[in-house]
Amino acid sequence: MTFFEDLPVPPERPRHTQPIPPAWVGPPTDELPGVVPVSGFVHSSNRMALALKSVDVYSTGCVLDLVWTVRRGDQTAGEWREAMDKALTPRSPFQQGLDGLLVGVGYPNGRKVFAGLVEPSLGGGMGGDVTGPVLTPLGGGGSGGNDEFLQGTSRYWLWPLPLDGETVLVARWDGLGMPESSVPLPVELFADAARAARKFWVE
Question: Is residue 203 part of a domain?
């Protein structure tokens, strides 16, 4: 007999089924995406670079994986600390103002979508009628830095999946001296990548 032998058995916790979120909210949780390696610069200068590293393509949309790096150059210690604070602290565009990283996608018909500036849920909740396109920040931030350079990542969910035309990723980062710049999205590769996406579970 042990001291804890008479402890009561906890009751079985009821199982709560989780609602399936709408497709515009984020990537499917039950899929392994097809990956399109891109390695294309959105912007590159002697001080700052922002690149689209890859695109994870799902059946419903895609995740744009961005990497960035910035060098100190001739900034003073105070200026560099301020730049590090802005770059290494993730904020929404509402919080950071126009000084932070602004990301959007432009479509052949002239339509634009901006990351984090429009919340589809404001138009009717999670179950509301959302037609898209939607560009949702998935996180990121500074992953390293020292007295000479900073680097980090940013990821965005784009829904629905663009499949044709001159679709471009556009970015601007006034706080780090990056002008408005763009790179074409390789949409001609997305259909094959979406077909390569696989479900985790076999029903």
Answer: no
The terminus-to-terminus CA distance of the chain in angstroms comes to 46
Alpha-carbon distance values, 109 to 1, 44, 157, 180 (Å): 76, 27, 20, 20
Q: Return the sign of the alpha-carbon dihedral for residues 203, 129, 66, 143.
A: negative
In this predicted structure, the answer to whether residue 146 has a pLDDT above a threshold of 80 is no
Exposure class string for 28-46: b at 16+ Cβ within 10 A, else e? beebebbbbebeeebbeee
Q: What is the pTM of this model?
A: 0.82
Q: What CATH number does residue 96 fall under? A: 2.60.40
Residue at 1 is within a domain: no
- Residue 101 falls inside a structural domain: yes
In the chain, the number of structural domains is: 1
Q: What confidence tens digit (pLDDT) does each residue in 42-65 have?
A: 999 988 899 999 999 999 999 999
Chain position carrying tokens 């001291």: 3
